[in-house]
Amino acid sequence: MSTEVSTPSGAPLTTGERSTAVAESLKRFARIARHTDRKKGIRAYRTHIKRDPVIPLLFVLVFVLPTLAVTGYLYFVASDRYVTEARFTLRPALGSVDKVDNEKTGTDSSLPKQMIAQDTMITSNYINSRQMVETLERQMPIREMFSRDSIDFLSRASQDAPIERFMRYWPKRVQTSTETHSGIITLTVSAFDPNESYRLTQAILAESERKVNELSEKARNAALVETTRELAHAEERLIKTRLAVRELRNRGGVLDAAATNTANLTMISELRKQRIDLAVQLTLGLRDLAPDTRPIRDIKTQIRDLDETIDKIERQTASTDPTQKKVLSDLLGQFEAFDNQRKDAESYYGRVLSANEAARIVAARQVEFFTPVVEPILPISSVEPKRALWASVATLVAMLMFGLSVVIRKYVFS
Q1: What residue intervals traverse the membrane (predicted)?
Q2: Residue 386: CA count within 13 A, CB half-sphere
Q3: Rounded distance, CA 288 to CA 82, Å?
Q4: What strand order describes the sheet that includes 185-191?
Q5: For 263, how many CA atoms within 13 A lie in the half-sphere containing its CB?
Q6: Which domain holds residue 166?
């Protein structure tokens, strides 16, 4: 087909004739395009899809039916769940007992932060434990709450299932989360009746508090027993030290070696002073009197008596005279050793006595308790399942799956 624009005579075309020729050429190109292969280009692809009988089937199976099934279950079958939330934390108990000893007992320092953090983790794990479920079953019908026939088949638990299988269902209805920095525990309980949800939350809180107090009570009683035993040992040590000191006094015949030694030193000092005075008098008397005169002999006798007394006292204090049972210096060394032992025993006994008193005070009180941050409240309306949200998610997923199936059909199985 020729697209040359000309007149039969070959004369130049006017403007109107040229426009008419161009329009006729475009019409010819359009007729040519309509006769091209339909399996090429976007028009061919759309025509291929319209003619493929599998695509509508995929649309029904992959998109329509799953979306209707999920939406129908959520809006017509799924049972309403009522959620009760409570938030609490563990804090050390404070009270008038803090005035006993503000530095050692009744303060936060007596209850380390590690203990509070550990008890927080214990509480969170205990709520999800089998022991918690078995304890609550003795107080209320836990299985019946979650296995009634009025509950939809996908949400209810099996009535006759063993406890091991029920423990797989328990975390779906009772959940806990802990904030790392504040230590606040969030408890979320979902049940199929608002009153049951509220009562179950209260029962879990009460049982968790009882368990934590039981564990801390065992630790407090163990500390009290340990300090009582150590107090008896310290008292026995102190008594033995005092008996040893008394026996040494009886054996040496001295009540207080240090005081006796001080008295002897004072006496020797006084006697030597007197001897010096007599020696001065003797020297002055010998200038005017003969050595054999009565006053001179008396002064010499007094000086001799003083020397004997001083020598006797010095032998009792530091000599090794075999006639003496114990030398005072030896007794003084032994008294000093026993006195140091006695002081150590008394100091140790005082510290143990204070620790025992602190343990007794802590054992007689509640060390920690639950501090409610958000009290549980009776739910009024159900908040689960989130029907609109999950229906939208199901629709979006079905749409994506349908698009993927069309692509696979076009490029893999065509």
Answers
A1: 54-76, 388-408
A2: 5
A3: 128
A4: 174-178, 185-191, 82-92, 368-374
A5: 9
A6: 72-97+107-226+368-408
123-161: pLDDT as tens digits? 889 999 999 999 999 999 888 889 888 888 888 888 888
Beta-carbon-side half-sphere exposure of residue 126 (alpha carbons within 13 Å): 20
Q: Is residue 197 part of a domain?
A: yes
Tell me the per-residue pLDDT of 263-280, one tens digit each, with 9 for 90 and over. Answer: 666 777 777 787 777 777
Mention every residue, 6+ apart, whose C-beta is less than 8 A from residue 273.
Answer: none
Q: Torsions phi, psi of 382, nearest 5?
A: -80, 145
The H or E element containing residue 363 is helix 328-363
- Only one residue has tokens 């008038």, namely 96
Do residues 383 and 397 both lie within one domain?
yes
CB 279 within 8 A of CB 258: no
Report which of 264, 356, 367 is spatially closest to residue 317, judged by C-alpha positions: 264
pTM of the model: 0.56
Q: Which letter does DSSP use for residue 293 in this model?
A: S
Is residue 343 included in any domain, yes or no?
yes
